Amino acid sequence: MKKVFLGLLTATTVLGMGCKSGGGDEAQKSKQLELAEAKATENNAKLEKLNHDYGQMPDARMLDNNGEKSAVYAELKVRYKAELTKLKQDVEATGAKFVMIILTPEVGSGVTNISRFGHPFIKATCAELGIECVDLSPEVGAQDPKAITQAPRDGHWSKKGAEFVANLIAPIIKKNSDATCKATYKDAERPETFGDLPPNDDEIMDGGKDLPYHVKANAQGVRMDYNLTFPKKKKRILLMGDSGIFCPFLDNEFTIPGVLQKTFPDYEIMNTGMICYTVDDYVSLFNEKAKFAEPDLVILQANGGDITDLFFTNRNHLGRSHRVYVPTETELKYYNEKLGAGLIK
Amino acid sequence: MLFNSTAFAIFFTVVLVIYWLLYKWRAYQNLALLIASLFFYYQFHYSFPFYLMSLITVGYLFGKQIGKVTDAKKKKTLLIIGVCLLSFGLVYLKYSNLLLSGIPMLSAWQASALGILVPIGISYYTFSSIGYITDVYRGDIEPEGDYVTYAAYISFFPHILSGPIPTATMVLPQFKEKSRLTVEKIDQSVGEIVWGLFKKMVVSDNIGTAVSYCFRQSHDLNGSTLLLGAILFTIQVYADFSGYSDIARGLAGLLGIEIPQNFKIPFSSRSVTEFWRRWHISLTTWFYTYIFNPLVDSLRFLGNSSIVIALIFTFCLSGLWHGADWKYVIYGLINSLVLVYEFFTRKQRKKLFKKVPVFINNWLSNILTMLFICFLLIFFRANSINDAFYIISRVVSASVVSAPVQYIVKYFSWTIPLILVEYIQKNGEYTWDMAHWGIGDRAPWNTIDDGKKKAIGLAIKALIYSVIIMAIVLYAKKQNMAEYYYFKF
Q: CB–CB of B406 and A216 under 8 A?
């Protein structure tokens, strides 16, 4: 309900921003708001029905050994490329530098087909789109999982792991120290938050694994210890990604962005990573919120899961923007095959 | 199937209906209880009821034999064999690792590697069984002739997982009497269940997150935060375990069985000795009756030293009861040393405190006692002895005067309702005694004739219940079984 409300609010805000303020036609504004509301209601009804009809696909079961050649995976790759293209355009439109890092805590024999098939594709797509892409997975993959992850309780980064990864990202920041955001926004244009956490969140989370950790968000919903002010006085780096950037089970200061903040005190490092996010979430997060923080450098953490997460059921169930993904014929066929095999309940 | 699950609510409703439908036939009621208890225990693992039944059989047969034999020597021999047989399972299943770790050549041979599964609540029903045959030996109770009655008593599902440990003299006779249920009993039992659920699901589970955080991240936190963590843990373990005990008492009460009270407002204690009279009472009573007293008797020739030896032995054993880890032994040892100190200085302290106003004396003693208990429970909660000593070193360091982190402080708000309510009823008869507050139809000032007062009292009571139930619905945290603290013992 809260998400629906936020979605509605965002939709109306965006719509409102698109209007010329000089028009002054209250009746027209009101009509537009009504239309947006009706559209959002219709959208939610569609989404609810699809979610009712189609259960979520368990991520790890998406790809078997021959999955790379499957028709559905080919379709998801096309979807991924389209979203990434959009994100690149949107980031570069602000003048900020866009860099991608391929990063997952999968280590040694723990590397899944999702990463094995996904990483080469992401690299190739970046090369094709002209995006600077740094694959950190070989360095990470060579580490001891017990040292860099919370194994055996959980596969996310340990303190050591986050520090290790932060050290791998540091040269990317140094290299792009001249990146500058050219876009500036008026205070009235800016949304209340730049990230998706509740503003001023300050709580201990346990995630059910007896690995409690402290999450602190600033007043702008970003996992960092201070508020961002305008005009900027320091270079600003936006880190986007899934749980690999959010870093569950670590206090703010021990997360990858937290360690980078200590390494680069002259920068403002924004952690907008969120568990389960994928590329279309980043597109909406960036356009609705993050770009208004005027980041100079945008680093997107990507992994193979970003592609499989674009399967229609996963998007409809987990997507932040509540965009409706109507299944294609290929997706439906694949879904029914998996359903028949008992892989979806 | 946990007490706070929907499955248990359905299970208990069915049991309650069948049990009271059979109220004319005590034997059938016991049979129904036994079947229900075995079914309940089976939900945790299929093998558990088999172990339980074999223990029940051993206890039953030895009780009968001890009761039959008249020769004192034979009687004693039978008791010793019985206690050894009953304890064997507990020692083997629970303490193999600790015993083997003391033998260097065998230390690699860990029980966990052998795939040993320790039945939940094993120590509770083992102690009940030992208590029963000892009571028969002492002549405090007649041996139970009916197997089903005895089995229903030992396996009784409200207390099988986490106690309170019943005493045969108090509880077993109730399984032979005609069941009775009064309106007052229903009132008391429902109150205990509701308050127990609140303590467990709202207070304990919510502050548990902060406690886990403090003990896990101890190396990154200052002394004052760790001290708060220790205080929160003391409240958590109390809310968790006393909540469970209250629910158990309430459930048993609805079945017409009175089981012992396990906690009696322990936070109002003014000495460690008093604390142990109020905390986990059924276990303390068990150790006092079956270990401490016999030991003091047998060492009487040593004079006061017998008390010292018996205290140290009993508390180390009680520490070990909590788990196969040396940290529990240290916990027991420190406890016993303080009790020895309190025993030998009681006269001097009394004299000293006479010079201090009663009010100050009470508060000071209470605060110091509770701080000591919090400090002691660090051994209980820390992951290892080293961790415990590290946390203590931080708590007694200069960093204890620095400000604690705010996100831990705010967890204390969960404890306020618990502390307030328990303080109000500190002189009540049992944990949830609203009559003591002057509320409800049993309140002393509510005479039967005064219908208006009675109605007001009932309305207030209904309001309080509604608030508590609402709080449970809104703020209960989802937990899995591992997070019930006292199941592991």
A: no
pTM here is: 0.80
- The residues pairing with A239 across neighbouring beta strands, listed in sequence order, are A271, A299
Print burial letters for B163-184: b (CB count within 10 Å at least 16), e (below 16): bbbbbbeebbebbeeebebeee
B6-21 vs B26-42: helix axis angle to the nearest 10?
160
- CB proximity B217 to A under 8 Å: yes
- Domain for residue B138, yes or no? yes
CA A305, CA A312: separation in Å to the nearest integer? 14
Per cent of chain B over pLDDT 90 is 60
> For chain B, which residues score pLDDT lower than 70?
97-116, 428-451, 453-454, 478-489
pLDDT higher than 70, residue A331: yes
Q: Final residue of a domain: which of B145, B162, B179?
A: B179
Q: Tell me: do B322 and B441 sit in the same domain.
A: yes
Cβ count near A225 (within 10 Å): 12
Q: Do B217 and B111 share a structural domain?
A: no
Span A32-49, average pLDDT: 83
Tell whether omega for the bond before A152 is within 30 degrees of 0, i.e. cis. Answer: yes
Contact list, B210 vs chain A (CB under 8 Å): 204, 212
Of the residues B159, B280, B322, B436, only one is catalytic, namely: B322
pLDDT single digits (tens) B296-332: 999 999 988 999 999 999 999 999 888 778 889 899 9
Measured between beta carbons, the chain A residues lying within 8 angstroms of B216 are: 210-212
Within B159-202, strands assigned E span none
Residue B394 sits in the same domain as residue B438: yes
pLDDT, greater one: A337 or B218: B218
Whole-number pLDDT of residue B90: 87
- Measure the CA–CA gap between A202 and A188, rounded to whole angstroms: 27
Residues B353 and B234 in one domain: yes
DSSP assignment of A262-315 equals HH-TTEEEEE---TT--HHHHHHHHHHTGGGG--SEEEEEE-THHHHTTSHHHH
- The number of helices, as runs of H, and strands, as runs of E, in chain B is 22, 0
In a domain, B274, yes or no: yes
| Count: domains in chain B | 2
Q: Say yes or no for a CB contact (<8 Å) between B407 and A214.
A: yes
DSSP label at A58? P
Chain A residue closest to B477 (CA)? A208
CA distances (Å), origin A195, targets A16, B158, B210, B411? 20, 48, 25, 26
A197, A282, A201, A269: which is closest to A238 by C-alpha? Answer: A269
Does ipTM come in above 0.85? Answer: no
Domain residues for the domain of B79 are 6-179
